[in-house]
Write a structure and sequence with these properties.
single chain, 2 domains
Length: 154
């Protein structure tokens, strides 16, 4: 996960939740600082042991190139397609988008992870539903996904 770190993201409750969830799911985080800002106490707990990459002062083009080189050297890229064995990417994308409405960009990682373990589309939907906090959210997400083309009810 690349965290674009700025004063705005530093004080965002949503960013804080996404970082906490990523740490809980053991997703590697790379804070990419675009402003000279120290993390708030709540983010410092999760980010203090992470490798940071600074992207200031402007212009940022050289910093973006360095970020891309860093990611490619580690076998990852923000633009890399999902590697999926049991499912087609076209099947997973709508599910990923639905899940992202609840949990944000971490949905991509969770869908990829669940797809590698799932025995079928219903199992995938059940695994992803379990990632949501509330029973209402879990039920709504599962119902929406089961209405998609290719699902057993769609």
């Amino acid at each position: 996960m690349v965290l674009i770190f700025s004063a705005s993201s530093n004080h965002s409750a949503q960013v804080r939740r996404e970082v906490e969830r990523a740490v809980h799911k053991q997703v590697q985080i790379l804070p990419f600082r675009i402003e000279e800002v120290l993390p708030s106490k709540s983010l410092e707990y999760f980010l203090s042991s992470q490798h940071w990459m600074d992207a200031f002062p402007p212009p940022r083009d050289a910093h973006y190139a360095r970020l891309c080189s860093y990611l490619k050297a580690r076998g990852g890229s923000a633009a890399a397609p999902l590697h999926v064995t049991a499912f087609q990417a076209a099947e997973l994308r709508p599910i990923e988008l639905h899940l992202a409405e609840y949990i944000g960009p971490l949905a991509r990682h969770l869908v990829k992870q669940a797809a590698s373990r799932a025995t079928g589309i219903d199992d995938l939907i059940n695994q992803l539903s379990a990632e949501l906090d509330g029973e209402t959210e879990r039920r709504d997400f599962a119902n929406r996904c089961r209405q998609l083309p290719g699902s057993t009810n769609g």
